[in-house]
């Protein structure tokens, strides 16, 4: 009889500790989840802003000015375009 | 004693037995209850652990994973370049009931927003309301400064601001929204519903590179010829996609209300103009298509045409019989008018209607102009319309009609929405394929031998037609001396892919153009510049064929003659008729 009581009390103790531990864990994880969700949203917003900025920095007039300033390149002229026949890839038999 | 003790013992045993029996039965009942409870719990555990419950799984995983703030969808060009997007901003508002001292609050807020009127702000803060906007879409620095003031009753709300990274480049197409992110103009207006409801970005057929080339070329010409405005459009003739649509002057979309009506006006789609000689293309096409006349045929353009009190004249009259190709190449009004009469009013109306020139154009923009057509449509109207006066259409309609002339005769509505690769929208056959092929050759001839020489591009075969129309003014056409000069071209003309139209509003001649401000002088070079950039950009191989000039005997042969060979030929003006155009308006 004594032993049963002891076992019961012991298991109650273990379970209480386990339950508290799990409960605590859940709270921590939920906080972490919330934080992560917030970070995701703010990152997504930051991405939107950065994408807008990227597009703005790629403005055609700006790119043209920069290219004229820093590159020794100019737009392709029609005469620079030609079609070159590509030789067929060697087949197994040829090898 | 023994007896008594014995009997007591028995008695005791009896009582004990009874107590034991009672406790046993109680124990049994309790254990059964516990056993049942544990069985239920175990069963539930097994059920949860062993058997899969999809609903439970959904509940467990779907909860509170990412919540992206819903915002108005982006607008992209055909290559995925961002044209419009929404970025989060903070807006500051006040709850006047929470304010301690409205006067002090107003004074301190104004230090952060100097543009806000302190007195007016105070009056609003001193009200009984619970919500007063102080400033929408503030910068992070301003937000920090407001926070630093430490005023109670001042709050922030997360708002969105529409941003157009390419600014004025696409302002007429993409359009604008109001402060509550509702579409006001352009695509923002016409796709307002989908943009608000779906997160899916909207891809346009526009190409910012082409748009930029067109805008730059037009801008240069506007400055050079001191024009009041310009319009340019590039249409893919194979599917009606609009690659560039530029109306100048344009506006910075972020400035909201501070934009002049002039800059807001879309000259490509909303403006309707008497286009002048470019209309001769339609007249020629309908004459050829109805077999009213062949390429060999022609009309006598010896004398000015007199109808009622009006006189139709050629600017640089040839004063002789002109073949159909010559009428186009020399841009003869007399010839075109006679051709129009030969076709007949009814047929002319039918063809112009089929080519979409007498009805409102269909395009995904709210700003679409209604063409002006004569009513009643008299014989004189038929004559003037043959060379583009007495009817006013938008440059969009013009470009779309010409696309149908060169693409094999199929009219497709122009579109700003990017179609799926390879998808070709159904069109309506408006002229025969054979007629379309003849029109290509004629348009090529105009550039090689006629008024469109300035549109010649080395490497690509451009075909087209110039147009210069007198603009009606307060004193009529003659008094105004203002013109609309345009050039509509297609290239590569042997297998047309793009129609390019450039139009300048009230250009003035310069010394370089010998004082001429005609389509051939001011608009054709714009098209040349656009084609020279557009071809390589699209990876189009230049034409390698050597073109032979039509020899005598070929109906396309143009007799070598006085001004038509020299640069002076460019002076062949878009020609106009003073009287009749006025009469038809």
Mean pLDDT of chain A: 87
Number of helices of chain A: 2
Radius of gyration of chain B: 39 Å
- Radius of gyration of chain A, whole Å: 35 Å
Helix content of chain A: over 70%
Number of domains as seen in the coordinates of chain B: 2
How much helix, percentage-wise, in residues of chain B? 25-40%
Instruction: Kindly provide the name of the CATH class of the largest domain in chain B.
Output: Alpha Beta
Q: N-to-C terminal Cα separation of chain A, in Å?
A: 90 Å
Strand content of chain A: under 5%
Q: How many individual helices of chain B?
A: 21
Query: Biggest interface and which pair forms it?
Result: A-B, 29 and 37 residues
Quaternary status: heterodimer
| Poorly predicted ranges of chain A | none
What is the CATH architecture descriptor of the largest domain in chain B?
Answer: 3-Layer(aba) Sandwich
CA-CA gap between termini of chain B: 147 Å
Shape descriptor of chain B reads: elongated
What is the average of the pLDDT values of chain B? 86
Walk me through the structure.
The complex is a heterodimer of chains A (95) and B (585). Chain A has 95 residues and is mostly helical. Chain A has 2 helices and no strands. The longest helix of chain A has 56 residues, at 2-57. The N and C termini of chain A lie far apart (90 Å). In chain B, strands 1, 2, 3, 4 and 5 form a 5-stranded mixed β-sheet that branches. In chain B, 47% of the residues are buried. With 585 residues, chain B is α+β, with helices and mostly antiparallel strands. Chain B is elongated, with a radius of gyration of 39 Å. In chain B, helix 11 packs across helix 13 and helix 11 (280-289) runs antiparallel to helix 17. The chains are: A mainly alpha (95), B alpha+beta (585). Chains A and B meet through helix 1 and helix 2 of A and strand 2, helix 9 and helix 19 of B.
